[in-house]
Amino acid sequence: MTETLAIGQRLDRADGRDKVTGHATYVADVKLPGMLHAKLLRSPHAHARILSINVERARALAGVRCVLTAKDLDRLEREPSSRARAILAVDRVRYHGQPIAAVAADDVHTAEEAIDLIEVEYDVLPAVVDPLQSLEDGAPLVREQATETDDSEALAHGSVTAGEVKVAGNKPTNVTSRVHYHRGDVEAGFAAADVVVEKTYHIGHVHQGYMEPRATIATWDAQDRLTFYVSAQGQFSIRSELSNVLGIPESKIKIFAMEIGGGFGAKIQPIIEPIAAYLAKRTRRPVKLVLTRGEDLIAATPAPEFIMEVKSGAKKDGTLTAVKARVIMDPGCFPGGPLNNACLLIGCLYRFPNLDVEGIEVLTHKPSQAAYRAPGAHHGTFAIESQMDAMARALGIDRFEFRLKNCIVEGDLMAHGEPWPNNGMKQVLQAMAEHPIWKNRASAPNRGVGFAVGGWLGGIQPASASVRMNPDGSLCVITGAIDLTGTNTAFRQIAAAELGLPAEDITVQTGDTDSAPYAGTSAGSKVIYAVGGAVQAAAADARRQILEIASHELEASPADLEISDGKVRVKGTAERSVSLSHIGSASTRYGGKYEPVFGRGSVAVTQRSPGFSGQLAEVSVDPDTGKVSILQYACVQDVGKAINPTLVEGQMQGGSVQGIGMGLSEELVYSKEGRLLNQSLLDYRKMTAIDLPKIDTVIVEVPSPFGPFGAKGVGEPPIVPGAAAIANAVRDATNRDFPDLPITPDKVVRALRQ
Amino acid sequence: MSKQPLEMTVNGEPTEVLVQPYQTLLEVLREEVGMTGVKEGCGTGDCGCCTVILDGKPVTSCLVLALQAQSRPVRTVEGLGDGDALDPIQEAFIRHGALQCGFCIPGAVVMARALLDATPRPNEDEIRWAMAGNLCRCTGYTKWVEAIQDVVDQTTEGAMK
Amino acid sequence: MYKFDFVAPRSPEDAVAQLRDRGPGGKLLAGGTDLLLQTKARVVKPAYVVDLSHLQDLERLEHHPGEGLWIGAMARARDIQLSPLFQNGFSIVADGAGLIGSIQIRNLATVGGNLCNAAPSADVAPPLIAAGARAEIIGPDGTRSVPMDEFFLGPRRTVLGPTELLLGVWVPEPAARSGGHYLRHTPRKEMDIAVVGVGSTITLDGERCADARIALGAVAPTPVRARGAEEALRGQVVSPDLIEEAARLAAEDARPISDVRGSAEFRRHLVAVLTRRTLTAAWNIAKQGGTGR
Fold it and tell me: Domain range spanning residue A227?
């Protein structure tokens, strides 16, 4: 039966051919008539007052069409409440790379030349860069007053917001948010423990690492409608936010979401679109703004920095007794970030009867953060999975047994009082324990095996989709969801399964904001889960309409009909049938007597389906140079139902490598004045093909009661445990702890010498 | 300064354009010759997205001045394959799911083609060393290696027939 | 990109003439993998560049058996990595060239560019110094020859005058029973700039070290000789313990700074490690009669 074949089919990606031939169109590939090129002048200082800006020489340069500073823009707040609203600095700079002025010119080289001609006088102020220093009395202030936290991005990712305590008050502070979870009595818990492990974990800022630098084109039409070509994870969400920032109704903004060269959570906030819109308005020409890689590393929106002081205890029979943590999150210079996620995961992955987790969000003079694929989860998981390993070793209990004894199951209460939904954490752990990397591990000098498990709660969002029949009888799925991860291919399969057709016969379109049905951002691991459900419903609706038409043509009841081989036929007969192309024609031609087939589906799933991923690593360590080589690596993940195993494996492998990078080589390094020191991909080190082995994948399927065909969100879980798996493996190889990421060679050498 | 004429062969076609002396080969291919398949991922030679084959050798075109390609043949991703037929590398990348967002893929398939032209039967280590100059954030490289190994196996089988 | 003019000379002499006639503000362009980074970053702002990429005469790799090996300044790192000429006595040069960047970068990067850009971490510098090479330079007044270990004056500064051009490097034929090896430390396996680079050559006379040259990269303003370590080796019977001592002394000869790529302390530690490893490898090659890899 085709419907079984489509689900689980390794269907080739629909956009594969476009991408391997270079035909896929990204923002930077688009050329519009009369288009100008923009460049931004950026502050070399992390914290400074702007005393004067002189743009005369820049304006006078041949080929320059427009130079803007803050005083040329209406609606600029001196103290903007969010990063998107900080279009150009008004009189104060709060991060290295903050835009001060913008130029639009005939070509990009002239624009750069103009930038060089702008003179700015700064009064450099002391910057606070280290979050611990920012907590101290007398630290330089990042904002002139604390305001409400900006939660919109956290909501887009489906992270939880209960438990937050907003900060107000009179004392100047860089603290902008606090959370606190507690249950039971942690002191009693520690008193009852036979081992207590206490460590401080640190993960600095990392860049999401998308290969396509941020880019946008803005253009106004004669009716004052603003159109953007964007590289973004959500066309409707970005439109809403731009409407907010620019003060233009959503109906007057149109978004063309081009192919996106990676996002991983960073391309949700519109940080370059607003200034492009102003330049386009002023020049009355389309304006293209493409960031260089250097600009993107310096001044985009990296993941926040976390310092996690964690203390946990367990009894000698392996029962956990208590966990206490103070989690400090540094989101850079604007508030908002996944503090909640990190705090929850520290306390809620395992059954701690007593817990006390305090979270503090504190600002520094660094670029503000954005989500990074399972935001906050890799941080919290790194801490708790390192603790679990340390406690297991101290107790002399097998590292898997210890986790299996204590892992949460459905119904266990999380720290904020909500029960864990149905999930596969146990099954993932069990599958990991069977993997050859674990089963065949042998003790050898300077070699070690480690693992970690992590999860993502899963996102939820209302979504709708439609399935339309073309005059020739072919079918097309239309959604508003950006195809970030290959979800369009999965939609074909879902629709095919529902309709009883081969997936190859279905096409998928992502419409623009004028024509597509609403969908939320492609983030939060909710595209298949939510939009996929809408696609399924839309396909079922289309099927019903097709059978309705066929029942008239064949004079049979719809219940007696089936779809097979491109035809609708009476079950059990070959002769009484009508082709889909006939139905298509009959429902669209002049004088036709049937309505066009247009299936619609909307869903509003409100139940989450968490996804768990577990990873194992075998490493070898060169004790003289400190270099860590990964000999073997595996990712085990519960996906509910693998609609397309190839796509799922790709997500698992890609996420794993991001986690490994966080563990071994990636960090944005700032000077004490707040300048970014590693401004290129030479010194911001992502893993290359020679740094990695093949990532083995094991798909576990614990069906979700809510996702289409039992599917769960796949995108985020695989990044969560990698850093912890690597740290645990290096610990196994060296007998030393590595609570400070990344585990660079110098840290290994230093640790071995102690 | 004034533009200078540049004559080169791009994907087998004689091409003549006027370029600024300071324009890179990457920029000229994208803006003047219409080869927008060649991507800029970093502009500093660190990511391989801009890989083209210049005079038979794979190079990062962001670090080549256009005028340095004077009288030389250039092959971009658009020049892979034969008419409508894809290069076996391109087919293998699709079949193995070795691409996701696709931004790094033009550079990667060009580099893989250059690798196999120079070394028809590389082992996994050689494949990884050769592809180490092409960064990818989405795939983790495993399916790249499998795709390239598949083409090697097919070529070997084909040669053995 | 900074806006500059472009000149394509017809010969090395013509390149020199262009530099002389067009006046200051000119930069020689070899592979572009350093210069174009610098012009994009606007740390170098040339009025014009003189492109050497079509001067085939500068690409020559020629072995004169018994005398030495000529490496033209425009010889690409990738060609050196693959050339059979560097498989035996001159393998240390291929060690260095083969570590620059990626294959795509090595197809562009040149020996001349790597040397004349004169980054303290330049990967062909320690090998060529350890091999006792000489730089052959041409200027308006003719040619001159400079030993490789006198070629560098400081970060990004060499003995080249503003109207001079490096023609190439002459590497003398190593004595029988010699060996050389270059290693560097980078956080990843490829693509990185050396945190520390060490090139060591050893010549044996019986069991004794007749000569040793150890060159350190990225641990001083220029590549430097570890003379204390060399002294400790000369005339002595070579052994792992002696090598260990030389490694320790080499670390003392280093004058590293701390920067984003590594701390001074870690660099010193690595000098000892890499000196030990390269001396051991060079010694093994020398013991086998100097046939390289």
Answer: 31-125+212-261+267-299
